[in-house]
User: Fold Phytocyanin domain-containing protein from Populus deltoides.
Amino acid sequence: MAFDKSMVIFFLIFMAFCRGVSMAAVYQVGDSAGWTSMGQVDYQEWAASKNFHVGDTLVFNYNNHFHNVKQATQQGFEACNATSPITTYTNGYDTVTLEKLGHIYFICGYPGHCEAGQKIDILVSSPTSSLSPPPSTQTSEPTEPSTASSLYFRYNLYWTLGVLLAFCLSGFAY
Ligand SMILES: *[C@@H]1O[C@H](CO)[C@@H](O)[C@H](O)[C@H]1NC(C)=O
Ligand SMILES: [Cu+2]
Assistant:
């Protein structure tokens, strides 16, 4: 029983650790193409292929002679209107940490660029609860000391932790 409890605690600590690691994801907008108006990237498609969470970081990589990044309101995003941005970034390598749930909109402020598709709507969502809950600690089952079933439980738990670690390290846990 003590063994089972310590394993459950280990499992919970592990999950917290995994979550912390996963939440620090860094995404370069447009991947290797960066932040561009040349049409190589469908930013809506790019954004739809990711799961953004609070704590993740976006990197806008671009030539700042030709582009900038303006965080826009939903109206500004939809109308490609960059006249009253929430924030303007002009470094050419700008990092933005996602701080809250919901949509965050970015457009390029150079004439015609947003219209050409240099705009992105990032939806920051809470972590999915697709993972199964930790093993039950209920004591209602018969407490026959069965070496076979305890070994099976142990094997099963290590296997589960191994799979979770693999998911965690590849960034797909959340
Ligand atoms: C752009 O937005 C500003 C302020 O939000 C507004 O005053 C202006 O009329 C808008 N321009 C266009 C062309 O919609
Ligand atoms: Cu631009």
